[in-house]
């Protein structure tokens, strides 16, 4: 039911979740669901992980907020930890994914302006998702999401995802490109996994042309794909990487990490945020990174993800309505032959929360803490529902 006091930007919501613990959430009637979407890749440690809760409780009665007018020890510790784990040089903290990407876009613009370019351009991808602020919406490859929001900022060029040759062709036409912005695996766009040498080829291309390679790891980061950051599968280092979602396990925090030239572009006053990197959010993120390590959850995401993909491929093999089953770590997509939004409701009737993105891709983003038997349960329920859905077509 629509609530008049809320803007109607989210469409109809039919489920009220009131409590969470581990890999489960409960609705307002007391019914329990296995959560295979994790608040859209946010609660990677499961709900209300005790380490995060303890850190938040401790910080909540110590100091919540002081602003970036002052030193913030937890922010400094988190920065050092992220830099050590990522191989990047430094970090700017924001409150969301879109804001982390805004920082990345501003870094690219700063570089372009320093090079004397009137309109420095960033190469972005079809089906990309980078957020809902004006610049990140423009970078997003979804015309429907942009509809009605003109004028959109200039300075973006779009090419197909997973197509290095298309970027080379652009480079021949434009001498004002400064950066490539890309997701290592496209999330909202339908769990699109590029060729395994894509990032390495982009790295070479950007090196040759003195462009920044900027990776949006807002969804793929924080262990989700079986490495802390997905670029670590490719053995490369980006110039800029953004993350958010899983970093705070539900506490809003984003990060824009930079290396090399990109790490030196912002001087005092060039960017900022009132809330960004506040003590509460940084304590949560520190607890998340420590827990990923202590519980070996990044390795776990890799092995669980492989096993989930394998089970789905066995159970759905030969089903004609299934066009593709793909993923990396615990980012898994099943592409069907037609829109399949109704599967969300059907899964709910089986006490399972899933998601459908890009119209016809069933998306699974379970917590990294999923057990083997819960993983089998996800695979079994999803396979049953997909096979039933396929039969309805025939
Ligand atoms: C979710 C997401 C964003 C936007 O993050 P918000 O916190 O909603 O602003 C940007 N990029 C990617 C890849 C995402 O998955």
Structural notes for this entry:
The chain has 394 residues and is α/β, with parallel strands linked by helices. It folds into two domains: 131 residues, Alpha-Beta Complex (Aspartate Aminotransferase, domain 1), CATH 3.90.1150; 232 residues, 3-Layer(aba) Sandwich (Aspartate Aminotransferase, domain 2), CATH 3.40.640.10. It is built from 13 helices and 15 strands. Helix 2 packs antiparallel against helix 10, helix 3 packs parallel to helix 10 and helix 11 runs parallel beside helix 13. The chain starts with 16 loop residues before the first strand and ends with a helix. Bound molecules: pyridoxal-5'-phosphate. Pyridoxal-5'-phosphate binds next to helix 4. The site of pyridoxal-5'-phosphate (PLP) has 15 residues, from helix 4.
In brief, what are we looking at here?
The chain has 394 residues and is α/β, with parallel strands linked by helices.
